[in-house]
Structure formats: structure tokens, C-alpha cells
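This part of the workshop introduces the protein records we will be handling. Getting from the letters to the C-alpha cells is the skill we practise here. The record below serves as our worked example for the rest of this section.

…
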Amino acid sequence: MAEGKFISYLRVSKDKQGRSGLGIEAQRAAVSNYLNGGKWTLVAEYIEVESGRRSDRPKLAEALAHAKVIGGKLVIAKLDRLTRNVDLLRSLVSSDVDLVFCDLPSVPPGPMGRFLLTQMAAVAELEVGLIGQRTKEALAAAKARGVKLGNPNGARALRGKQTGNAEAIAKIREKAAQRAMGLQGIIGGIRKSGVTSVRAIAEELNRQGINAPRGGVWHPTAVSRLLNRLPPSA
């Protein structure tokens, strides 16, 4: 049973949020359900937009530090929302902060729980590697049979160099919408702090180390496009 003080950590990937089926709102719901609809104290929420493979997580570091200072627990909706990097997970489970996963309520605290979490992450990492290996082998076999791989028109469309076909254009728009929704919570927090102009929002996104859609730094034009994709209340 959940008890005590909690810090929640929510993560979405840059380009895989939609496919994961577990966006920010779904993660919030999972945390709320775990905490018995608010019966237990959620002190703060930290949101990170980053790949599950990356180990440099400024928001995760902040969440861990916050939990440690208040003697609380770090609650995560799902194990794969925390990380798919086994080394990072090992370093986290060996820290002084208790980790709680809403999808693994029966995992016990202490050494046994840490062992189980590490083994589960290792199995997930192995499966990702095997899938990648099978994909490469299948593509190599197809190429050896003379099959032409890729779609030149679609590829150019994804680079923004020509109109391309409807499927490629739809994919571009879908990815842009997914990224916008992933940043909705962060934008909302920035606005609530009193930062409202597109230039100031761009500066704050850069300060937080959040990459722009095509990498690099945010500019007012990119922020304006992002805001146009979000609901007015964001």
C-alpha cells in the first residue's frame, strides 16, 4: 500500500510517445490511482522529454534530489517510462531513494526488489537488441535478393525538400503533434511561472536543456509553431 510522501517522474520520448500508448496524462492517471486518488501526498511532479536510452536526465536528477531531501519515494507509472538503460537503472536502485513503479506494485523493497528490477530491465534491453538484429538481417536478406529499400520521395519529404506523398506528409504532422503534446506540461509550467512571450519561452526551454524539434536550440518561430499545436489552456 502506498504511504508517505511521493515525487512523481513522468517521461515521454521525443518521437515515440504516441506509439508507446502511455503519454503524460496516462502516466498522471496511473500515479494518481496508485496513490489512491490523492489519499497519499504527491509533493511534486517532474516531466522529462527524452529517449529512454539516454542516461543524462536533468529532470530525473532533480526529482531524485527532491525525494531524498524530503525522505520521500520516487513514483513512476511504468518501468519502461524510467529507463531502458540497465546501467542507469542499476545506479538508481542502489541510491538512497526508494523507487516505486505503479505497474509493479508487488515488487518488494530492499535487495530483492532491486535485483528483480535490474533483471527485468536486462530482459527488456535484450529484447530490443534482438529486434534490432532481426530487422538488420531481414533488410540485408531483402537487399541481397535485389529488393530496393526505402522511398526516395518519402525520404525527401521528411527532410522538407519537396511535397512528397500524402503518407509522408501525414507522418511529419503526426510526429509534430506528438512532440507538442509531450511538451504540453512543460509549456504549462513555464507559463504559470509568468513566462509568456515566445522569445522568453524559447529561452526557458533552452535553459532547461530541451532540444528543439530538429535538434539544437529553440527560436521564437519554433516556439510559435509549437504553441499553435497546443490547446489554448496549455
About this structure: The first helix runs from residue 17 to 20. The CA atoms of residues 32 and 202 lie 31 Å apart.
